[in-house]
Amino acid sequence: xPETSGSPGRTPETHVIDFRAAExxxxxxxxxxxxxxxxxxxxxxxxxxxxxLLRARAFFAAAxxxxxxxxxxxxxxxxxxxxxxxxxLARTYERQGRPDxxxxxxxxxxxxxxxxxxxxxAKFDT
Length: 126
Fold this sequence. Notes:
The protein is mostly helical and 126 residues long. The protein has helices at residues 12-27, 31-44, 49-61, 65-78, 83-95, 99-112, 116-122. 72% of the residues lie in helices and 0% in strands.
């Protein structure tokens, strides 16, 4: 079996399994375990935006706000119309005590997707 990721025994199929397992770990409230799996996936596939978004969510859940901010920013560089990534970045800024940046991204999220939760946080009336 050819190696594609630089890690012995790692294949594209293994990375898909790791990604799915990371989703399950995050759902089971083990964000640090999810990050460990996703580090391998992203190491082999740094262009994979879905893996980066999942890792950003895991960092956020683990209260690792600076790494979460960096990952959400990378996702938004690649997908500037990703409303969820704007919303999640805003939540990250909010938890960091950076309300001006949070407000900007809450509003971008709501402008891209009129999700009621996004609209509530955007506070367009204030």
